[in-house]
Specification:
Helix content is 41%, strand content 21%. It has 2 domains: 197 residues, Isopropylmalate Dehydrogenase; 139 residues, Isopropylmalate Dehydrogenase. The radius of gyration is 20 Å and the shape is globular. It has 353 residues and is an alpha/beta fold. Bound molecules: nicotinamide-adenine-dinucleotide, 3-isopropylmalic acid and manganese (II) ion.
């Protein structure tokens, strides 16, 4: 198979981990006789430096024309001024919107060899295998009005949480669909006791639940969910939730896996290329030292193979190699080991079969 992959390494550790995920993709292509081409484009802070904007038309059209997009991370202290007119994160949001990527899949598993890497007790982590389906192009991130307004000598800042029924329906439908090939349980997370968007969400979830009698549906308030994620994470199968809640709950869920550096994600839309990226950011505190954990990016490459290129065998092979490397005790510093980014990726490549 011939595929065109666009890479958007971004800022901070983004380029460090993306380079290693690309090496893994090249290795699996060689093993299985595929031909992948890679074209790199700027996004985020590096694009601001070069072009004055976080996402150029050129980058967006290259992504649209690709078979799949592999992203590193954007942002950093250099661009953190809260009053700056352009910010790296705008590029990320614009590319998600521009590619229509409304669904962000964030799988979380506890690896038996990493149970002691988490501050959560090992007995609680056993059997954790959950999938967060995060709505990605709606809610507080995109609702209007949004902005700062000068009124009567005061500054007012506004964000709007907004959802249309069709946006809620399509993400919930996907969650039900994904649950059918898993343990057939959906937890719909909302804040229906306070938010109107959540009451619409819960109403639609209830209706769709009736049409999916083979899947058990539960509703959970987001504050409770954040607690249950730590006290009884193994009870979750598919968690479906709106944009902001999903962002926050998945950083929390990374603690179950053992490190922020381990979690991958797939952002999917209706047709068009998917975008694959680790859930972590640019990690300015460790950037430039070659010590970032590349596993989140490598597992995102596995999701790229599975959902982006429909290469299930190749995706499973990469995941198995990662599992094996971890079982064999290979660790970057975030997990208490001493391997560099490159050495960790090499350990995965060496275990590809
Ligand atoms: P972060 O995810 O970058 O880092 C949080 C902590 O996790 C840090 O201590 C970091 O060292 C550690 N960490 C993250 N990834 C790691 C890895 N692969 N290996 C080892 N340790 C890792 O979050 P932050 O520091 O709050 O944000 C930094 C910047 O990244 C901000 O500008 C933020 O907006 C941006 N950000 C971007 C994305 C993205 O591009 N998808 C995601 C989250 C945050
Ligand atoms: C993520 C990040 C982004 C988000 C930021 C950087 C815009 O935190 O991908 O999880 O909030 O979606
Ligand atoms: Mn996040």
């Amino acid at each position: 198979m011939k595929s065109r992959i666009v890479t958007l390494p971004g800022d901070g550790i983004g380029p460090e981990v993306t380079a290693e995920a690309v090496r893994v993709l090249e290795a699996i292509a060689k093993h299985k006789g595929h031909s992948f081409s890679f074209a790199e484009y700027p996004l985020g802070g590096c694009s601001i430096e070069k072009h004055g904007v976080a996402l150029t038309e050129e980058t967006l059209s290259a992504c649209k024309a690709a078979d799949a997009v592999l992203l590193g991370a954007v942002g950093g202290p250099k661009w953190d001024n809260p009053t700056a007119p352009v910010r790296p994160e705008q590029g990320l949001l614009a590319i998600r919107k521009g590619l229509g990527l409304y669904a962000n899949l964030r799988p979380v598993r506890s690896h038996p060899a990493l149970l002691d890497s988490s501050p959560v007790k090992a007995e609680i982590l056993e059997g954790v295998d959950l999938l967060v389906v995060r709505e990605l192009t709606g809610g507080l991130y995109f609702g209007e009005p949004k902005g700062r307004f000068e009124e009567n000598g005061r500054t007012r800042a506004v964000d709007t949480m907004e959802y249309y029924d069709y946006e809620v329906e399509r993400i919930l439908n996907l969650a039900f669909c994904l649950a059918k090939s898993r343990r057939k349980k959906v937890t719909s997370v909302d804040k229906a006791n306070v938010l109107e968007t959540s009451r619409l969400w819960r109403q639609i979830a209830t209706e769709l639940g009736k049409g999916n009698p083979d899947v058990s549906l539960e509703h959970m308030l987001v504050d409770t969910a954040s607690m249950r994620l730590i006290t009884s994470p193994a009870n979750f199968d598919v968690i479906v939730t709106e944009n902001t809640f999903g962002d926050i709950l998945t950083d929390e869920a990374s603690v179950l896996a053992g490190s922020m550096g381990l979690l991958p994600s797939a952002s999917l839309g209706e047709g068009g290329p998917g975008l694959f990226e680790p859930i972590h950011g640019s990690a300015p505190d460790i950037a430039g030292r070659g010590i970032a954990n590349p596993i989140g990016s490598i597992l995102s490459a596995a999701l790229l193979l599975r959902y982006g290129l429909r290469l299930e065998q190749e995706a499973s092979a990469v995941e198995a190699a990662v599992d094996k490397a971890i079982s064999d005790g290979l660790r970057t510093t975030d997990l208490g080991g001493g391997l560099t980014t490159r050495e960790m990726a090499q350990a995965v490549i060496d275990r590809l079969v």
